[in-house]
Design a protein that fits this description.
Helices cover 28% and strands 14% of the residues. The chain has helices spanning 12-17, 55-63, 125-128, 142-145, 156-170, 183-188, 193-203, 221-227, 252-255, 258-264, 292-298, 331-341, 351-358, and strands at residues 39-42, 68-69, 72-75, 81-83, 106-110, 113-117, 175-176, 179-180, 214-217, 233-237, 270-272, 281-282, 285-286, 302-303, 345-348. The protein is globular.
């Protein structure tokens, strides 16, 4: 049921000493006089209520007040950027039930992990458009599963088009928050992602530091590559354990130290930690806030934790209400703790609940 997101070289020391990047109003911590309220970031859309990473989920998120919608990017055989959390698509589509694609099933090494299934890089965009999306967790989210089969896999361009049209219709800016997924895997296949993303952003007039775009990645090198291609804001994702696949000698826990934040500030505008790195679980409940937000703000970068989900199954035990894993627990207590910690934005599967808690 794990649906979470998942050594700098010799020049790192000098880079760490460099001045932090200037941060635009979207990203600057409130303490520095810009943004007054933290951003509502819809994690794969309103993915607690509609099948994730579909236009249906993104529309629902916008209707609930999302400031940003998050498309995870993968690449097709013919080089298109499509929106899926994994390049293996059987968990969130009906591809396994399509006899015409049975021969595409394969086992691959994806950034050090053996994965069996059907992969975006083995399909053209036209072929992927014949496949239909479904809910990843139907037992926990039967209401979302009721929408199975209604949506195609969208392209990133389609998500940008939706954000632009809804921004115009609603009279408020709605941004996109793309994540570069499995960048080294696609590069090895001759399907390098960074240039493709840069081309789309430029084509859509989004090549500026004030454009409503955050580019995020768990690895370091793709963000540094994007730094030389476009001016858009960048977010270094981190996790409670492990390390970037391209910088394994520098674990995430060191990256979010006070000194690590200064290094991140040389190539990114913010950090996206697992929310437990900000509000840890202690004795089954919510512990006191760590120094992560304070240290990030001291380095001049924003903090956008991921991912708050409302169901008991994903909350600390002391926030459970009843025993049903699918029932909503006391998610407001978690929202309030993160607000009090001073985060600048937050990913949620239920953007409407987060928007209400934020006020």
């Amino acid at each position: 049921m794990d649906i979470n997101r998942r050594t700098f070289g010799a020049g790192a020391a000098s880079a760490a000493a460099a001045a932090a990047l200037p941060a635009p109003s979207w990203a600057m911590p409130p303490s520095m006089g810009f943004k007054k309220t933290p951003l509502v970031i819809a994690h794969r859309g309103a993915s607690g209520e509609r099948p994730e990473s579909t236009l249906l989920a993104f529309r629902q998120a916008i209707a609930e007040g999302a400031d940003f919608i998050e498309p995870d990017l993968e690449v097709t055989k013919d080089g298109h950027l499509v929106v899926r959390h994994e390049n293996e698509i059987s968990q969130t589509t009906d591809v396994a039930n399509r006899p015409e694609f049975a021969s595409r099933k394969a086992t691959k090494d994806v950034q050090g992990q053996k994965v069996t299934g059907w992969f975006t890089e083995d399909f053209t965009l036209a072929e992927l458009k014949t496949i239909r999306c479904r809910e990843r967790l139907p037992k926990l989210r039967p209401g979302s599963a009721a929408y199975d089969g209604q949506e195609q896999i969208p392209t990133y361009q389609e998500v940008i088009d939706l954000a632009k049209s809804e921004s115009k219709r609603l009279g408020r800016v709605i941004g996109t928050y793309p994540e570069l997924k499995h960048a080294s895997h696609f590069e090895a296949l001759g399907l390098k992602m960074e240039g493709r993303l840069a081309d789309i952003l430029k084509k859509n007039g989004l090549n500026s530091e004030t454009a409503p775009v955050f580019i995020q990645c768990f690895d370091v090198l793709p963000l540094k590559t994007m730094m030389g291609l476009v001016k858009c804001q960048r977010i270094q994702l981190t996790s409670g354990g492990g390390a970037p696949t391209d910088s394994k000698s520098t674990p995430y826990k060191d990256m979010v130290s006070a000194s690590g934040m200064k290094t991140i500030a040389t190539y990114a505008h913010g950090v996206g930690p697992d929310y437990t790195q900000v509000i840890p679980t202690v004795d089954g409940g919510l512990g006191p806030a760590t120094a992560l937000v304070k240290d990030a703000h001291a380095a001049g970068i924003a903090v956008h934790p991921y991912t708050v989900r409302a169901e008991n199954a994903f909350l600390p035990p002391k926030l459970h209400i009843g025993t049903d894993p699918a029932a909503h627990g006391d998610v407001d207590a978690l929202y309030k703790a993160l607000l009090a910690a001073g985060v600048d934005g937050l990913f949620s599967d239920f953007p409407g609940l987060w928007a209400k808690a934020r006020g």
